[in-house]
Specification:
The complex is a heterodimer of chains A (282) and B (332).
Chain A (H helix, E strand, L loop, with lengths): L2 H34 L21 H9 L2 H32 L5 H12 L4 H13 L7 H4 L8 H12 L4 H8 L4 H12 L1 H17 L2 H6 L8 H12 L6 H35 L2
Chain B lengths: L5 H29 L4 H31 L2 E2 L7 E2 L3 H9 L3 H30 L6 H13 L2 H11 L5 H13 L13 H26 L3 H9 L4 H12 L1 H16 L3 H4 L11 H11 L3 H29 L10
Antiparallel strand pairs in B: 1-2
The chains are: A mainly alpha (282), B mainly alpha (332).
């Protein structure tokens, strides 16, 4: 067979497989949206109804109202933003310290930092809870937001440090000669330079906090403090127990996923960059 | 203390703690300088202070305390009561729900992680062939990873329902093989494969992104040199490409295992018969926060952690023989 035919076959097979993979990804997503727009009797039709006629947009309004979803959204945003800002600030400061300054024990401490990346969180969950409980902060937003001031994401510190290492030293040296102190160097020179890293980690941090389930689950008891993911759980557990209201639950899932998906499409470069820095230099 | 507005409450605390940490950093700097430390040392320690404090307060202390708790009986209302090895004895010999949970968790990790990695490798290899619109495909495959795990779990629970989409699509196969539709999450024997399938869908996207980037970094010259020497495509792939991307493969495997062993969110949104879908991390939560047996829960947590460390070490050992880092001189 000549190479032209061979190449054509190769290309055909490649695109065929890619499309197959895309179908595997897209069909469930489509089904999720499709289900969210169905009335309760249309849920179990055979053959499956792909495009509900008529689309019950009211499901979204009902899902929003059956539980205080507006409040849940606000709670999720509240937690996410407070945690994210604190994380970005402390992560960049700590990474700056590790990347740019020599001090005794630096390598040992950095190695410890790396190993905590691999330490399962399951073991510290209970004592952390007990600690917050002693401080009287159970059922408040504190455990979900204040911990961020302690730079609690070793992966983020690692990524940011790698990024700092790629910045040439001349800028700092010039500034030092001009008499700038550390804080000025950090604020005026470093921060603008590491903007891509800040964006990448900001995006990952947003995603992590938005989807965080275990922490809100163990720390929050009052429904008015629930983030959306707890609201979804509460709905599934109480109002949807006997005959699961799949259309509502799919609608809620879509509502919960939309902001994150939107952020992803707007900033996908940063999601992917964040992933890669962690993996290729690991 | 009655709280009128929980948001203001937390914001105030948040600002206070933030300011305190920044202040502490300055104090540490001043102290170190006063003790005649070099400027670099003082600044360095001041800058890493947030992490160092967090490490001591939220990792070392809980780590040690949980080890202590594992040997106690603690229901939070009364002080912990030392019981020695009793928790472990009960766990290993008498608890009927422990070993099934271990089996589920370990099998799930050991099956779904390599499978996901292979699927991602296959997809990344496809995409690396100068495919038109690589960005589009890559984004598309990544979308499931962006979905909240709760949404994914509910979606798959819905699709795996007895009259759900999956069984409807498989209906011709059922007829052909003359069998009843599978019950997936409602069948104890199928709970594990159902979780594995769901995880494959959710994970292979982000791994594909990582492996694709790694594949793109393999220098063309190496592959061409091998071809000139007469190597076929398969040989080039196994002897050159795979070793060159082995650090990324290693990363994907390790992070995958650590994550899979601690599977928590998805199982809590999926009802299974008789708790067949209770992963170890979920079991820890149940024992600690719904049964208020924090001592026992800590014991289970420690067991889970040791299992994760063992698996991680195994992957590490395996990789030492197979992972190739550029610039490393290998001892034979």
């Amino acid at each position: 067979m000549n190479t032209k035919v061979l190449n054509f076959i190769k290309a055909f097979v490649t695109y065929f497989l890619l499309t197959l993979g895309a179908a595997v990804v897209v069909v469930p997503l489509f089904w999720m949206v499709s289900t969210s727009l169905k009335g309760p009797d249309a849920l179990f039709t055979y053959p499956p109804e792909w495009i509900p006629r008529p689309p019950v947009w009211r499901n979204y309004i009902e899902a929003w109202k059956v539980l205080p979803f507006g409040r849940f959204l606000w709670n999720t945003l509240f937690i996410t933003i407070l945690a994210m800002v604190a994380e970005l600030l402390t992560t960049s400061l700590v990474a700056f310290g590790f990347a740019r300054f020599q001090f005794k024990g630096r390598n040992v401490l950095f190695f410890i930092l790396l190993s905590t990346m691999m330490l399962p969180g399951v073991v510290t969950m209970i004592p952390s809870f007990l600690l917050w409980s002693k401080l009287g902060q159970v059922d408040t937003f504190d455990p979900l937001t204040i911990g961020a001031w302690f730079a609690w994401g070793p992966a983020y510190i690692f990524m940011m440090r790698q990024f700092f290492l790629t910045i040439p030293r001349e800028m700092e040296e010039a500034a030092l000669i001009d008499g700038a102190n550390v804080f000025q160097i950090y604020w005026h020179i470093m921060l603008p330079l590491i903007r891509p890293a800040l964006l990448a980690i900001g995006v990952l941090s947003f995603q992590g906090n938005w989807n965080n389930f275990q922490a809100p689950l163990i720390y929050l008891n009052s429904m008015e403090k629930f983030p959306m993911i707890l609201g979804l759980k509460f709905f599934e557990q109480t109002l949807s127990k006997e005959a699961p209201m799949w259309n509502y639950m799919m609608a809620m899932s879509v509502l919960m996923a939309l902001p994150i998906l939107g952020l992803f499409f707007a900033a996908q470069r940063y999601f992917i960059e964040g992933l890669n820095v962690g993996a290729t230099k690991g | 203390m009655p709280v009128s507005n929980p948001y203001i409450y937390t914001v105030v605390h948040w600002v206070v703690v933030g300011a305190a940490i920044l202040l502490l950093m300055l104090v540490v700097y001043g102290l170190l300088r006063a003790m005649k430390a070099g400027r670099s040392t003082a600044v360095g320690y001041a800058l890493i202070l947030p992490w160092l404090l967090g490490f001591i307060i939220w990792q070392i202390y809980p780590f040690v305390f949980s080890l202590y708790l594992a040997f106690t009986e603690y229901d939070v209302l009364t002080p912990p009561k030392w019981v020695g090895l009793e928790n472990f004895r009960y766990m290993f010999t008498k608890d009927p729900r422990f070993w099934p949970s271990v089996r589920l968790t370990v099998l799930y990790s050991v099956i779904s992680v390599p499978l996901g990695m292979l699927g991602a490798l296959a997809t990344a290899t496809l995409l690396a062939q100068d495919v038109k619109g690589v960005g589009f495909w890559r984004t598309l495959y990544y979308v499931p990873s962006v979905l909240p795990a709760a949404a994914t779990a509910l979606l798959w629970r819905w699709m795996f329902a007895s009259q759900g989409l999956i069984n409807t699509l498989l209906a011709p196969f059922y007829r052909l093989l003359d069998m009843q539709p599978l019950s997936w999450f409602s069948d104890e024997r199928l709970v594990l494969p159902s979780f594995v399938i769901m995880s494959f869908w959710g994970i292979f996207g982000s791994n594909t992104v990582i492996l694709l980037a790694a594949l793109k970094n393999v220098p063309m010259e190496l592959k061409e040199a091998a071809r000139v020497d007469g190597a076929g495509s398969w040989t080039v792939f196994w002897r050159i490409t795979v070793p060159m991307i082995s650090p990324a493969l290693f990363y994907v495997l390790i992070m995958g295992v650590i994550g899979a062993m601690q599977n928590f969110t998805a199982p809590l949104f999926i009802r299974t018969p008789g708790g067949a879908g209770t992963f170890l991390n979920v079991y820890v939560y149940q024992q600690g926060f719904t049964q208020f047996k924090m001592g026992y829960a800590s014991a289970i947590a420690w067991f889970l952690m040791i299992m994760i460390l063992i698996l991680t070490a195994l992957v590490w050992k395996f990789s030492e023989a197979h992972v190739y880092y550029e610039g490393e001189v290998r001892k034979h």
